[in-house]
Write the structure tokens for this entry.
Amino acid sequence: MKNLATVFSGIVLEALPFMLLGSLAGGLIEVYVSRERLIARLPKSRWLVVFSAAALGIACPVCECAVVPVVRRLLGKGIPFPAAVAFLLGAPLVNPIVGVSTAVAYSYSGSVALIRLSLGYVIAVAAGLAMGWLFPEGSALISRKAVRDQHKHECGCGCDHSDTDHLAAHPGRQGIMNAFRHASADFLEVGHFLVLGAFIAALAQTVIARQSLAHFGSSPISAIALMMLLAVGLNICSQADAFIAASFRNVLPFSAQMAFMLIGPMLDLKLIFMYTGIFRRKAIAKFAVVIVMLIFLTVCVLQVVLPAGPR
Amino acid sequence: MKPTPFSDRRGLFAAVYLAWWITLLSFVISGEYRNFIQPSFVVFLWLALAILLVFAVAEVMQLGSAKAEVRDVVRSGFLILPLFALWLAYGQTLDSQAYLKRAVALGPRTGTPSDKPIHSGKAIVSRPNSKSEPLQVTILNILQKPKDFEGKWVETEGMALREETMRKDKFMRKEASVPGAFVLFRFSIICCVADSQPLGLLVEGANQKDLIDNDWYRVVGRFAINKDQMGTISQAVLSKLKTPPESPYLYGSQN
């Protein structure tokens, strides 16, 4: 019980500031970024917009907790659905902070970091395109609740204009207060999912003995599957997960460690709950299958090409 | 019935934000947050405090605009839950049970044999004379560069995990197979306790008569890597610490 409370508190305490920051960024986007201007600045090519979105984390590193409220608002502003998915998956993984932490965790190995970031980018792009192909009507994916929240002004600004002309309707001080209201609404909408996910993750950490996993190390396939499952259950921040993966260096194959580092920032328990603030449940199930399949196939190829990892 | 601030949706949310703000502030000011996250993350906690306050003000300014619905109460309940956990875990740290769940293998886990001949943990060497003091190091220092400490006398602190407790755990057979030894352990944190790594050394030769799991001890002895690649302190002299170290966790990674 003591360990459960400690781990649960730790996960929430670590994620909370980033979640609040993400909500604040979402609120500011809602009020100060007009839909027309955003769409005008996006690349016109359907492919290019996905490729660019997956790499946005390099310029603006966001962790997985902060990215969810931001994507919620970007979707509301009309960013194409495949690009939103690519950004959602790419930004927490394909960024310099994760690159440095991975290199440090693997005894200053730049090649491990490069492999992780490159594969993360490829998977984010592929998942974005796959989701766009699976759901051509991207907006149908956004949960009815999220749409209602965005259009009925749960922020409480109290006016009946559309959300595209917030800035014109609320200039100056009134505008910033509205941004805070939107941000608060976003936090309340997604925050309880964070709590639920963090609790289940803490429970998994308290109950599962990691030593029991070592028995799966004999077969690369079972090791990969197991490490993916572990990453989903442990909910470790993308800046720290490489250190945990590296602790399995002499126990499990490199491909399994990479699977752990790839899936964690894209699909862990906490994120699955938080995604319900953006996507419908059926869509989340397909989304999860796409991510799992892409990562599994990628690391299986890695196992064939680099069975012992980079030298 | 007279309306209360909690029957107002905005009042309810403002109360949640303020409860979080008060708890977070007390954890930051008391330094208790270090039992959950890396100390350098305090900057983000201050930022969180500022944002929580802003959100609370934003909610207060809308007081009376809507009544609280059931889903608002449920949502608020979820957001309050971590506060109970935080107060429940106040002053607590991860213990031997967490160590047993997290430990994959004991010792430096270099994976490659030492350049030097492997010492048995029980090798007989001379004790340091009065002029040569043992090296005061943390378990993390030792495990980060085990070869630098091999054969040297070290003094370090950690919590105890008794042989008897290890034997009860089905995954710790290897460590428990060294009779008369116990594990001195601590946890290292990168970001938060969720990513904490267990750091343990096998301690041999100390009198374990009054040893208690999870109590803090100072151990002086000779460090070696034994034939099973486990970091070992042999010929150990044990003293119990009256209070845990100021920072029970170590910050960094052994990789």
